[in-house]
Structures are given as C-alpha cells and as structure tokens.
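(Deposited chain)
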Amino acid sequence: MSLRTHKVVSIPGDGIGLEVTPAAMEVINSLGEKHGFKITWDLVDWGSGYFKSHGSMMPTNGIEIMSKYDAIFLGAVGTPDIPDHETLWGLLIPIRREFDQYINLRPIKSYVGVNGPLAANKSIDLIIVRENTEGEYSKIGGRFATNSPFETALQVAVFTRNGIERVTRFAVGQAKGRKKEIISATKSNGIIHSMPFWDQVVAEVLMEHPDIKLRNILIDALVAELVLRPEKFDVIVASNLFGDILSDLAAALVGSIGIAPSGNINPERKFPSMFEPVHGSAPDIAGQGIANPIGALHAAAMMLDHLHEITASAELHDLIAGLLSSGISTRDLGGQESTKSFTSKLIAAI
C-alpha cells in the first residue's frame, strides 16, 4: 500500500522560528510513519536573513514557487534591525493576498496544566474567524506635506460585500458544527461607514441560516466581556484588525501566546493555505533552545487537518494536551523542558 504524500514548503524564518519549525516537522514525520502518509518538505531560507542579502524577504518568483505546494508551513519572521512593515508586507501579507487566504482561523482552548491569568476557567474553547485580506489592512492611502506642521497620513479601510459575505459564511460553517452561535465584532456606533456596512452584510448572511444565533457586540465591550467571561464564547467573526487584536488577547487568556496556532486558509483550495504559530520571532530568547514549540505543533495539527490527515491531527492535539496535563511543559509555562526535550517526549508518546 503506497503512502499518501503531501508537498509542503517550510519557511522557518527568523529567531525561534528556526527552532520550533524543525521540531514540528520532526513530530509530523513521526505521525506520518504511524498513520500512513508522508510530507515531502522543501525548506527555504526566506525571511530577514534573506532580506539582508537580497533586499527582499523572498525571491521575486516566491509566490510562483509556493503555488506548486499543498500547504505552507511558516515559523516566524522579524528582527529588531528591520522595520516590521518590511517583514510583514514583504512576506506574510503577499502570501495571504496572492493566494486569497481570506480566512485567518484562530482556535483558542484552555489546557489542564497551563495556568493563565484566568486559571479558574478551565472550559475556554472558542474560534475566532478573522477576515484576512482586506478591511483595515489596506495599502490605500498615503502621506503628504512631510516634514511640516501639516504632515498628514491617510489610511483607507476597504470593506467589500464579497469579503464580508465569505468570511461570515465560513464562520457559519464553523458554528454549525459547534453551538450554533456567532458573535460579530463591530464598532458601528463610532465608525460610521464601514462598520454599519459590516453589520448589514453579516445580518443578511445570517438570515439564510435561521438556526444560527447572531449577536453583535461593540469591540470595546467585546474585549471586556472576553476577559471577564471567555468561557461563554464559541465562534467570533471579525474584521482584519479587530480579529488580529482579539485573537492575541484570547491566546493570552488561556496561558500563553506560545501555544496558539493560526491558519491562513483558502477554503476553495484553489491556492495553498499557510499555517503558523501566532508568536513572533522572540529574538530575546532565540538560540537558547528554550522556545515553546506548542504553537508550531498546533499549527502543524491544523495543517494536517487541512490535508485530510484528520486522525493524525486529532492524535497530535490529544498528545499535547496529555503532556501538559501531566506537568510536562517548557519554562514559559512553568515547566522545565527545553524545545528539544519536549519534542522528544512528544515523539516518544507517538
């Protein structure tokens, strides 16, 4: 019987990405041996180091190169000596937009053995569905009258009916398999054009699904409620900026941004999707061997699920939860494990 094969391009990137990405790849290879599939990895050195040598974060034909793969596995990008807008707009955002990865999926779950600021809550299990290609993260705008008292910056947020409809429909699909509830993040009392339009289109989509309950919550109140009662949330749909902020906040609430994954998804599978941990490159701890690989491992599990290796994905989630509940974790979570030792114990459990 032949192995199922999947082609994945791996971009470890910078900082701790160079440590957690190989760890996750090693774990996936072990799962593949057990479950009858193989990942054909192609490793590329794109990122800040590539920028310093070539003046760009990836080759000019980088998008064309990646288009031939089933998925993209990203570590982290960014160094203190390169402006963040160079690293973000030079790699992540072009990948998301050229491959129409219009869904940013952020699952947030609490784990026994991980004590966050809300340690009493052990039942946090929610999904944030973030619009990933338009909204507030637009290139439209500019600056003029520079170096004068009248210097001005204009930034135009772009909200399209198609963009709002498709992210809402994806959120509906998630809600149908869960509690049949959606929270929509808005700010229609203060942002006079885009947010009332967002509310309108979201409501129109939900009218097609009377079995799904919709609640609109203003973003400032939503942030407060998410802190006070995170266990009450199930599926949240949000614009690019609001979803970005909410997902990092929610990850911190369950104990560490180091355990949270992210999927940049093209649901139609016309283009490859990209999976990454949500943490940054963490240059302050890079090279010390202490980085938490769980965010990358959870991202790897999301990638396996996307590649229809559902059994292996579920096992990886369960094994991580098992290690955490038994007190095995890295130092950021109060444990004693290094990146390598945690990975080795996970592979042994496989």
Remarks:
- The two ends are 22 Å apart (CA to CA).
- Residues 1-101+261-350 form a domain with the Isopropylmalate Dehydrogenase fold (CATH 3.40.718.10).
- The longest strand covers residues 4-13.
- The CA atoms of residues 147 and 153 lie 12 Å apart.
